[in-house]
Amino acid sequence: MKETGPTREEIIERAEEYLHETSLTPEEYEALKQSIAELSPIFTTESAYFVLGSYGQPEIYRLQLVKDRLNRRADAYAFLMVDIRSEWVNTYLKFRLLADYTDYIVGVSEHDQGGFLVEQGYFTALEKYFAKTYVLKREYTDVGAEDVDTNVDIENPYSGMQTAIFDMLADADRLYVWQSEDDLLECAEAVP
Fold first, then answer.
1. How many CA atoms, within 13 angstroms, populate the side-chain half-sphere of residue 75?
2. How far apart are CA 93 and CA 16, in angstroms?
C-alpha cells in the first residue's frame, strides 16, 4: 500500500502550473475539486495503470480488455481517461494530472488514426512519463485485410514519429507486440 497522495491544494497548484499563463475558470476549478475524490484509487492501491488508446469502435473494446486484465491483479487499479469525470473540459490538463500520479502508463496502439497520438509525444518529451510507459503495439504482418476491424492501412499502419517512439520503447524493453486479442491479453500480463 502506498503512503498518502497529494493534497487537494497540491493537485490544484500543479494544474495551475500546467496552464502556464492562464488560470482555471471557476467552472474548471469546481470540476477539478469535485474530481479529486475520484483520484483516490490512484493513491490507495499498490499499482495504478492509466490505459490509453483510441476510443473508436472497436478499439475501445480492446482498451477495456487491457483495463480488465490489469484490474484482476491484487491491489491494482486500472482506468481509462474517460472513466474519470467528464466535466473536465480541458483534456490536456486531465491527461497531465492523471499521468503524473499513476504508476504506469499503458498505451494500446493500433494505428496512426487518432487515439493517443498527442500523448505519445509526451512519452518521449517528458522523461517522467517515458520512464513509466509501456506500449502494446499491434502488428499486422500475419493478418489479412479481411481480419482487421478498423480502417488501418495494414501496409503502413504507423507514422514515422510513432515508429521512432516504438524503437525507443523497444530499446527500454517496454514495447510489447500483439496481433490477436489473445496476444493483447498476454501483453497486458507482461506489464509489471
1. 9
2. 9
Question: DSSP assignment of 35-101, as one string?
Answer: HGGGGHHHHHSSEEEEEEE--STTHHHHHHHHHHHHHTSTTEEEEEGGGS-TT---HHHHHHHHHHH
d(CA 62, CA 78): 14
Q: Which of 143, 140, 137, 131 is nearest to 162 (CA)?
A: 137
Q: Are 3 and 46 in contact (CB under 8 A)?
A: no
Q: Which cell numbers hold the place of 121?
A: 509525444
Grid cell digits, residue 122: 509526451
The gap from C-alpha 3 to its chain's centroid, in whole angstroms, comes to 23
Q: How far apart are CA 94 and CA 100, in angstroms?
A: 10
Distances (CA, A) of 132 to 27, 50, 179: 31, 10, 23
pTM: 0.91
- Give tens-digit pLDDT for 76-121: 999 999 888 766 777 888 899 999 999 999 999 999 887 677 788 7
Block residue for cell numbers 499521468? 99
pLDDT in tens, 4-19: 788 888 888 898 898 8
